[in-house]
Amino acid sequence: MSHQRGSSSSSALGWLLLIVIGAYVIFVVPLCPTLTVTFKITYMPAKLEHTLEVPSHSYTKSSLSSVAGIAKGDIMLIYVAGTVGHYSVSVAVTYGNEKLPAGTFTSLGEGTYQIRVVYWPRAEDKSTPYAVTFTLFFGTSQVATATAWLFPT
């Protein structure tokens, strides 16, 4: 009988350890690649030129719990200092030879915007960057492109 009690308590200890490790992975360990890229749309009347700049970008990893309410793979647009206008921007993301979900945002004006995309945990090679390519359209005409290269850390 004492052998059964010992087996029962070690089984309970095993389950408790499994729960603690699972909670640690979900709440603490950064596993989800997160790409953030800021882009700026400007128009230079003197040159009749539309420009698209990528002044900053970052690659981080987020814990599963911190990105629980975010759809994985969907590109989100954040208006930093943007306006409504006649531009549209297509965003394409690739990792190596893999094309990841893309997005298009319309009715943008001059200003600064940011995109953010979170992916499910995935195998990555630190020497293979994510390429985030922006294509700017004014009406139906393509007027500029820019690419940000984000290396996994």
In order across it, which strands form the biggest sheet?
2-1-6-3
Which fold name corresponds to the CATH topology? Immunoglobulin-like
**Strand-and-helix sequence, N→C?**
HEEEEEEEE
Q: How many domain regions?
A: 1
Distance between the termini: 53 Å
Multimerization status: single chain
Q: What structural class results from the helix and strand content?
A: alpha+beta
Mean pLDDT score = 88
| % residues in beta strands | over 45%
Number of helices: 1
* Molecular shape: elongated
Explain what the structure shows.
The protein is built from 1 helix and 8 strands. It has 153 residues and is α+β, with helices and mostly antiparallel strands. The protein has one domain (30-150): Immunoglobulin-like, CATH 2.60.40. The chain has a 4-stranded antiparallel beta sheet. A 4-stranded antiparallel beta sheet has the order 5-4-7-8, with no helix packed on it. A hairpin with a 2-residue loop joins strand 4 and strand 5. The radius of gyration is 22 Å and the shape is elongated. The chain starts with a helix and ends with a strand.
Keywords:
153 residues; alpha+beta; 4-stranded antiparallel β-sheet; 1 helix
Provide a quick synopsis of the model.
By secondary structure, this protein is of the alpha+beta class.
